Each structure stands twice: as C-alpha cells, then as structure tokens.
Amino acid sequence: MTKPQEAIDPAAVTVIGFDADDTLWHSETFFALTEDRFRALLAPWCAPEELTTRFLDRERSNLALFGYGIKGFTLSMIETAIEASEGAIPTGAIQQIIDWGKEMLAHPVDLIDGVEATLDAVTPKYRIVLLTKGDLFHQESKIAESGLADRFEAIEVMAEKDPATYRRFLASIGVEPSEFLMIGNSARSDVLPIIEIGGQAIQVPYEITWGVEEVDGDASWPVMRSISDLVPLLDESVSPAR
Q: Going by CATH, does the domain composed of 10-25+110-236 fall within 2.60.120.460?
C-alpha cells in the first residue's frame, strides 16, 4: 500500500506539474450542463437517475476505445440514447446530441481565477510543466487558446495518467519523482499515481467531480481550496488547509 502523503516538502521540489482541465480552466461544468440536457431529452424513455447510472457505465466501458474527452463523451451519449430508448429515439434527437458535442468543442477557454498570477509567481523559482489527458487535437487547441503555453517548459497530453506514464514523462525530462510536485483537481489522476511513484501532490478540488474520477474514502493527501494557495504554501513550507 502507498504511504499517505499528509504534507509536502517544498525544499525537495524542483519541478511543478499542473493539470489542465478543471485545474487551470473550467471544463466539467460544461459536461454537467450537457448531461442535464441529455437527461431531459431522454426523459420520455428513461428516468433521470437510471440514465445517469447507465451513461456513466457506458462512459467507463468506452474509455479503452474512445479515450477521454468530448468526442468520447458524445459517442457515449449517442450509444446510451439508443440503448435506453430501445432504438426509438428519432434521428433529430441524435443530431441534437451531436450538436451539443460540437458546441462543447467550440466553447472558449475560461481560466480559473488565480491561475495566471500563480504561474507567474512560481515560474522564476521552479521548472513548470503541463500534464493533461484527453483528445490530443482538442487539448492542444485549448492549450493554445489559453495563452499559457509559453509558461511551461514541457507540455504532455497523456492517454492515461497512471504511475507508468508519469515515470516515463519524468525520466524524459531528467527529473526524479522525489523532486516533483503535481497540482490537479483529480485525486485519481493527479494525486494518487504521483504519490505511488514517490513524488508529491496537492489536490485542488473542482466544484464538480466526474464520476469516473471519484475515489472512496477521505483525503489522506494535501488539499488546497484554491490554486492561489500554492505560493503561500510553498513559501511557508506548511501543510495546506483541509
């Protein structure tokens, strides 16, 4: 079992990694809005609670084929709609789901408060990298649109955030896990794999957590209320507030 990381040691850190979606900019709120529309669309065939469960199950089963991101999300909605309606859903409703996916893909990047100031503050003292996952084309588009790309020494779009992938990335930039600190909203993707390989991590929870990213149990790792708390935390060398 991985030993819980209850505090961080800023003195050991030389490189800070940042997640992108729901850490640097808003993302999950747009997925949640579309899911609300989806439940309303399928109401004639399936109760909202049942549809939520069926859709999450479909998303999980499709990850190995479609990966993460809006395109897989949209295809999973279409599959769930056909299954839940037993094929009765009209083509116009299928087109509506496709249009929602296109709308999400075209949505402008909306930075979370405090992100730019935090990146500006840590850049002079640390090497910083961006580690995200999802559809390569869409992630690259969002990174470019964010205006943040030039701040990062390296940018990596990962198919999955697991211990092996993190190890390979850190090796590629010549960094030991013990020197690395990861900042992200997901305990499952941004915190636990890093702790497992001997690095440090801090969770910055977003207001909504995708069901696939949820983990059981109370946090046994550092948690910040806002990304703006990072600089004081590094300067003071204390455990973050829970």
A: no
